[in-house]
Amino acid sequence: MSTLLSSLGRWSFRHPWRVLVAWLLVLGIAGGAALALGKGTDNAFTIPGTESQAGLEQLERTFPQVSGTSAQFIVVAAPGDSVTEAAYKAPIEQTVTQLSHLSGVLAATSPYNEQVTGMVSKDRAAAIVRLQFKGQASDVTPAAKDSLRASVADLQKQLPDGSRTVLGGDLFAMSIPALSLTEAVGLIIALLVLVVTFRSFVVAGMPLLTAILGVGISMAAIFAATAFASVSSTTPLLALMLGLAVGIDYALFIVARHQDQVRAGVDPEESAARSTGTAGSAVVFAGVTVLIALIGLGFAGIPFLTTMGIAAAVAVAIAVLIAITLTPAVLGFMKGRVAGRPRKQRTARKGAAEPRPTFSARWVGGVTRHPVLVALAVVIGLGIVAVPATSLALALPNAGVLPKGSEARTSYDLTAEHFGAGFNGPLILTGTIVTSTDPVGLMHDLGDAVAKLPGVAEIALATPNQTADTGIVQVIPTTAPDAPATADLVRELRAHHDEWLKEFGIDLKVTGFTAVGIDISDQLGGALLPFGIFVIGLSLVLLTIVFRSIWVPITAALGYLLSIVAAFGVVAAVFEWGWFADALHVARTGPIISFMPIILMGVLFGLAMDYQVFLVSRMREDFVHDPEAKDRATSRGAAVRAVRTGFVSSARVVTAAAVIMFAVFVAFVPEGDSSLKPIALGLAAGIAIDAFLVRMTLIPALMAILGDRAWRIPGWLAKILPHVDIEGEAVERERHLAAWPGDDSVIAADGLTVAGAIEGLDLRLAPASALVLTGRDEAVRRAVGLAIAARVPSQGRLRVAGHLMPGRGAWVRAHVGCVIVDGNGSGSADPLRELRDALRARTTLVVIDGADRLTLAQSEQASAMLRDAAARGPLAVLATAEDVDTAQALLADAGWADPQIRDLDATQSLPLGSLSEDERSETKTKRRLPQDHRVSSRSDSVGARSTTPEEVATPLTDTDLDEVTA
């Protein structure tokens, strides 16, 4: 991957205008689609498969008057007046009649209706008028809302002075998130951090501009998607928050590496390619972890949450793509003008022999000098911070969390004051009563039974529908909609299902907006454990692959758990305990939005892995290259030294990235949407805790405690793990071998080794020339030919058609033809067709294995095809054959009269034919196709050195080689 990204970075640097115009076109297309297709967001929360949702769907079919969204307005009489007086009753009833004809209104209920109880407060100081609309809140037109507001305003004018009329209900309970100037503060802070980091205002603006472009594309795509899916109003803001944070950070990592290299004298183009290949590889890995975690939100099985995760994942994916393409393109515009103002050289203190150490050096030095004490302090400290999380309660947002003074919040508070908290969240029991001979009496009896339960304030309505096939009981709880006691009441009602079914013959379902919210909270709570196992298990697997270690993933996962519970503790302390609630403009303390924990777990996982990779990969790199790491006596000292040097090398960039993310997230807290506030605060706290306390304090301490054991891995595990080059090892290898072999050879091999076949082979093949590999063992010949064609793994140095293996193996496989001719039928079914296809691509090299096995007619046709291809352009041929004369004749007819001959028997080889029959039989039982071979790495006995793909490969068997034609 690193070599591919390196090439992509180089191309983008060379063609900046193409890349920039392409992204601007994408932005224009996405923006146009959003304008043409966008239908707006929808805050209707649904949860398929639950009792409450099934109840709502049943009511939509049989009792639509109570199934849709509702609105209400409360009338509070002037002090000393009663709402039952004529001055109030007449205007209110007139307004109810008027509203009953409003478009979309199914029913308008007067508080004076004899069939409805409880709509006038017991002190007769207030009355509530309820309206039932068809469909969900998003189905109510703005014109209908305006008419409703106008009618209530007219009513206010008709009522006595001192009275109040306030609109509320589910229709007005959901706020539409919007951006404010406070969010811009986060961008300003990010810009200041970038200026300090890069010491250049122009360079600092690059990550910010690319991130804003990415966010613009993702926002447009999300709004365009509203034409095909239901998207909640919180979704775009969450995607905006994440897209900005990761977009700035990912560009920061690449630009910081580029700036350091340019300051060191590297050519800007070469530096951009290296930065994209090295830091860009880590960016892709980090982005993939965030994507997987966000898509994993689908674990909860809740559609709106799944949509939210996918939308945020789209924003992160776009941020990654922009980072690895547009960032090097913008560097191409700037060329070498990225060095920035040079840093002041640290001078030695008076009497000191060395310059003063940096703050990061002093910090990590202190941490690693007393690692046990530091680790205990961090763990105990974060454990204390996590204590408030034990009281974390979850619920869907309602009007009670809206800012004080807003219309719906005022109505919510007045209703609670005059009617009780439970009046803001009534519950509905519904069931089929088609078999009843007395539906009215049946519903009254059921209502009386329900009223006896603890937690029930009153029964507002118990009635059948007009066709007497469905009945409802509207229950007013004694507690608020988001109170734990209300959730207990819902469970209590459901617990009586069988009893009431036997007594009344009704299969009852508990539903309503409040019940839906409780079901969503319960399902989300149940999904936290499997999602947590998924996330932590994923982190263990990914980090084991990346670092080829057991202890590094375990410490990373434990650190992630500490960060999560501490972030939960901070959120609970603010939103439930009320600490700093006024300073953060928290409208009301109480339960937190239900999907905050699962979103926080998913997002923070990906971001925590970012810091883990960028910090620990430098530690691993320094340890691997330390000569003392190979000696058991000195390996522990080398490991601790690597922790310190690796920390110092990466601390500046990681610190800047964490500060930027914290600033972006925390900016959404003071004036942000009430639903987004706890998520933003949790992410801001989680980032600060994870970056500065866990990754930059606890992890170095634990790594120092573990010493060289941190880099050990069992041999069996090392063999089965794939090699993932996120540190850009292949890019660095290409840089070191850029001048090798020093000529224009189409094939250049030094010390080429194919495990189980041959080792130490040196080869050179000039352009437009031919080479015949011969030898007694067919398996050895085929192994070498396939290794050169990049069909099987190899070790040592190998460059084919100018591309260094194994990093450019994908290119070689796509551009170097390979034809296998075998008399026993295991080769190509039609070698001439394979050769024709290979030559059609105008390749500069073709490998023909078993050239002496072609029939006379096939040989003549093959010679003609090779001759024609050579006439079109330079073509080199590598042939393997046991009969050298036959192969020479084929090449001579094609125009290569004097091909090179190389006898592989003269090279130290490990032919399978030399094994005993028992050994050969045992080897053949390990049947793996070469395409399926996984290149593995291993560590020596002290974990001092992790080898690269070209140094270790799984041995091939002769069976493998026979089956390669698949």
UniProtKB/TrEMBL annotation:
Matches recorded under Pfam families: MMPL
Transmembrane segments: 171-196, 208-231, 237-256, 277-302, 308-334, 372-396, 527-547, 559-580, 592-611, 651-669, 681-706
Domain SSD span(s) in chain numbering: 203-333
Disordered: region residues: 907-966
Membrane protein topology class: Multi-pass membrane protein
Gene3D superfamilies per record: Multidrug efflux transporter AcrB transmembrane domain (1.20.1640.10)
Keywords (A to Z) from UniProt: Cell membrane, Membrane, Transmembrane, Transmembrane helix
Biased composition (Polar residues): 938-949
Cellular localisation: Cell membrane
Biased composition (Basic and acidic residues): 917-937
Protein name: MMPL family transporter
Organism: Microbacterium panaciterrae
Higher taxonomy: Bacteria, Bacillati, Actinomycetota, Actinomycetes, Micrococcales
